[in-house]
What does this fold into?
Amino acid sequence: MIANTAQNYYERLGLDPEASPDLIKAAYRTLSKKFHPDLNDAPDAEEQYILVQEAYETLRQPERRAAYDASLQPDDVWSEYEDMPNDVNDWDFVEPEPRPQAKPERSTATLVFLTIGLVIQYAFLIFCIWWPIKYTCLTIMWIIIGIYWLIQLAIAAAFLMVIVFPILLLAGLWLWNQVAGMF
It folds into this structure.
């Protein structure tokens, strides 16, 4: 993973690639004192000092350090996938379990009302995503959905009053006449 040691700035400073900026600064100060040409008479001291300077200048700036760290990655990013099978037929697939296909029967009117309700809900949801006052929009949406369901209840109540109650009333009157006619 780490590039050539002659070019590795972390190894020049004796640090780990995860070293903090404070550790980088401390290592730089230590090594710059050690290899400074005015303080060290070794023949390669100046060369070592320049290499430490170069490493520190790259690693102390976050942008340059990030670019340098990215350059240390291996060229072959697919190497971890070498042991995967190349043919789809070699893969182990798990067959999904079949879903139950039974669906409840619904009338056309019910489907129309459900569709209208969903359209209203999604229209307001999309509107509320773009609107800056989100909670106001959600409140308006729930009020409209509540009105929609009140209309549904009114339709059901009207159905009961117009169809079911008259039938029950007629059946009751017929039964009364039958019972009254017996006496």
User: Anything to note?
Assistant: The chain is about 65% helix and 0% strand. Residues 76 and 153 are 66 Å apart (CA to CA).
